[in-house]
Design brief:
Layout (H helix, E strand, L loop, with lengths): L18 H7 L4 H30 L4 H8 L2 H34 L5 H8 L1 H4 L2 H12 L6 H6 L8 H12 L1 H14 L2 H8 L4 H30 L2 H7 L9 H10 L3 H39 L1
Helix pairs in contact: 2-15, 3-15, 4-9, 4-10, 4-12, 7-9, 7-13, 9-12, 9-13, 10-12, 11-12, 12-15, 14-15
């Protein structure tokens, strides 16, 4: 019979499943499927969709005039500029670090490789607030480098450099963590073939490695940018909450909410919500293009 698998007694664990068996193994009753779907959709509606809708409803509760006034307030514009500045600096730095680290880990063997992977994962295991406190300990007025910085009239904590440092710390794993498994799965054969044909390091990266990782790279950049603009904990510790100077968008939302300016707070928060929606759309598009590229590669092979 076509498609059937030859069965040997006692060898069920070592043989592959037929198409019918694979389908039967995942078959559930309609009740189970609709229950799982209902739970998933309910969770999505209660914890994701409703809060998102509430942000825009509260932002527009007092009308468009109040909404636009909140967004064009000088302190809000300053928060937008600082948020964009931190992202513009943090994303390229993490892009360079992520590509370099992923290339080294996936393509080479060297002493300390596993230690480097552990360091990359450090921001995932350390609370952002703790990271901010560490920067205060190192660069604060009473910190390890505080006297030296004061002597040279340099300010890191409660200033833009501290905000950038905190943003870089919490975002630097994203690009590397997207690229490492992708580059490991691709192997080294294409790069080695290019070297044999006479290509040097940069040519290998630009013409062989980069085309193979471009969608994963773009995906990592999108996640890095979203986290950079939405970071609160670490930035809150090092910023000093100086209104109009060291407040990013999340910090400005907190200040407005604490001052009972709810409409203004939700208006500014809607900018972050729009950023999340745009990020989601771009993320879906990147995943779709990556899936298409993978399908084309599979068909070609």
């Amino acid at each position: 019979m076509a498609g059937a698998t030859t069965m040997n007694p006692g060898s069920a664990g070592s043989r592959g499943l037929t198409r019918f068996e694979a389908k039967a193994a995942t078959r559930e009753s309609p009740l189970v499927k609709w229950t799982i779907l209902g739970v998933s959709l309910s969770f999505f509606a209660i914890f994701l969709l409703m809060p998102l809708i509430a942000v825009f409803v509260e932002a527009l509760r007092k009308g468009w005039e109040t909404y636009l006034t909140a967004l064009t307030d000088p302190d809000a514009l300053s928060a937008v500029k600082l948020t964009l500045l931190a992202a513009v600096i943090a994303v390229p730095l993490n892009l360079v670090f992520g590509v370099s680290a992923a290339w080294a880990i996936a393509k080479f063997e060297f002493r300390g490789k596993h230690f480097l992977i552990t360091l990359i994962d450090l921001p995932f295991s350390v609370s952002p607030v703790i990271a901010g406190l560490i920067y205060v300990l190192v660069f604060g007025a009473q910190g390890w480098l505080g006297p030296w910085l004061a002597e040279h009239d340099l300010k890191v904590i409660f200033a833009v450099p501290g905000i950038v440092l905190a943003t870089v710390f919490v975002t630097f794993p994203f690009v590397a963590r997207e690229l490492i498994p992708l580059m490991e799965a691709q192997g080294r054969e294409e790069e080695e073939a290019a070297v044999v044909l006479g290509a040097h390091g940069f040519q290998v990266f630009w013409h062989v490695t980069l085309p193979n990782i471009k969608w994963g790279l773009l995906y990592g950049v999108i996640l890095t940018n979203a986290r950079a603009m939405g970071e609160f904990g670490a930035v809150s510790v090092v910023s000093g909450h100086i209104r109009g100077h060291t407040n990013t968008l999340p910090l400005h939302v907190e200040i407005l909410y604490n001052e009972y300016q709810f409409a203004a707070a939700f208006a500014v928060a809607s900018l972050l919500a729009l950023l999340a929606l745009v990020t989601l759309v771009i993320k879906s598009w990147v995943e779709h293009r990556a899936a298409q590229a993978y399908k084309v590669t599979e068909d070609a092979s």
